[in-house]
Amino acid sequence: MPKTVAFNLTDLVVDLPPYKVSPDRWTLHQNIEVNEGFPRRARGFGRVFGSTLFLPRFLLNGQRFGVSEFIYGGDTGLAFTDGTAHFDITGTLVYNSLGATSPWTGGMINNIAALSNKTGPAMFWETGTAAALILPDWPTTRRAGSLRVYREFLVALDITENGVRDSDLIRWSDAAPQNDVPQSWTAGAQSLAGSASAAFTPGDLVDGLTLRDQFMIYKAHAMYTMSLIAGRLVMATRPVFSTLGMLTRNCAVEWRGQHIVLTDGDVVIHNGIEARSLIDRRIRKAIFSNIDTVNFENSYVVIDKELQEVWICVPREGELFPRVALVWSIADDAWGFRELGVNSWPHGVEGKLNTAIEEPTWASRTTLWNTDSSQWSTTGISPVSDSLVFADAGNLLQAMGQRDDFDGITPTAILQRIGLDMGVPTNFKYVTRIWPKLEGVNGAVVRTRIGGQENVNSPVIWEPYQDYVIGTTDALDFDASGRFISVEFRSETDATWRSPAFDLEVNLQGQF
After folding, report:
1. What is the pTM of this model?
2. For residue 160, which of 63, 143, 148, 201 is within the disulfide window of CB 3.0 to 4.6 Å?
3. CATH second-level architecture of 45-356+379-400?
């Protein structure tokens, strides 16, 4: 007597053999992200702002005077775009990071970009100025492995002075004046600048990032916290984790008082006190089994706060820059896997695209102040235009969600589950029908197939694909059998779709 078995699969698990994976997990994602509890075909992307002046290795977004700007650093140049044109702002700065991995870090302080390329002096650039300049009181022979913003200070890590490197040295600037960058890096009675050492633990300083009112400092296998205090010391530093560090620069993001960090063998989330793995017995192999052992330092992590997604981007074996991303849905605690562009993507950042909106003026208002329900804004940037923007190695910038395809290329999206045993692994099952329950654009075709395995070591014997047409097809009939059943949905179309669930009509048979 056949029975209907319902399945609702969301997360991805690749670290375990399929027969050991719980029935609510997929065993293969390709160009799939998870959002609002459902796996969906990954969002498309498209080019924005025209061609860059050179290959961008690092992106930083800032907004000032009603305009969103993307600053990008290359191997020997610095530039920005306001969305309509590109401008070289290298000026007299000299650096050369050709062949270097992860050379750039930086941040925005008082709406001014502060940046460091580890092969040259730390620099800053302010909207409206022709070129970037060396930071005030920064020696021209000083180099920093990382430069970040903490409150009204700049923090430099892994310092080289006159060719002599101190990979444990932490320097912080004087407090920045209003609407300016810090004016001093020299400690003194009139300056809050200072330095500290992270030599208590082995390894080099890697990077840092603000966490609530603290600044977390990462080494390769350890982490410190730095806090602003009163008195002569200015900053207090202390180690907090002796085994948790960061794989390379640009590999941590902040989310609601926590950091998500790519380490040298894990992806963890922590609040500065407790930490837990996000990938253990889930997708660790997908990240680390094929990571390039030479160019792994070109890995990076970026967050889409609007969609609550964290992207782990790593170069696979033989790649210089990442061409794939593992995407973690924060709200769903679920992973997806997607391809990036035809070219590799050296870096990414969340920022506002310049979408102009009509701004009201005081004179144009005819309603009373206490009855006017419209939204007032001080900028001409649309509040709904946040997007992930990526540097493309083809001298381009790519913005997520701008189109359904992948910059003109139709992606192949696959959801696959192997090894479903229906709770009875010893018995054969005969599957005669599937109700895919796919949602999306009416008329979109999602190819569907079912297969069976005689035992866990047997290959899957797949039935031929059948087309499921969203909005038209109800169920598909198959003749698949085995102790373990497999299901696959596959699309080769630009239309988007998602998979809330599917049902199988199953006849449970004997053990032989």
Report:
1. 0.92
2. 143
3. 7 Propeller (2.130)
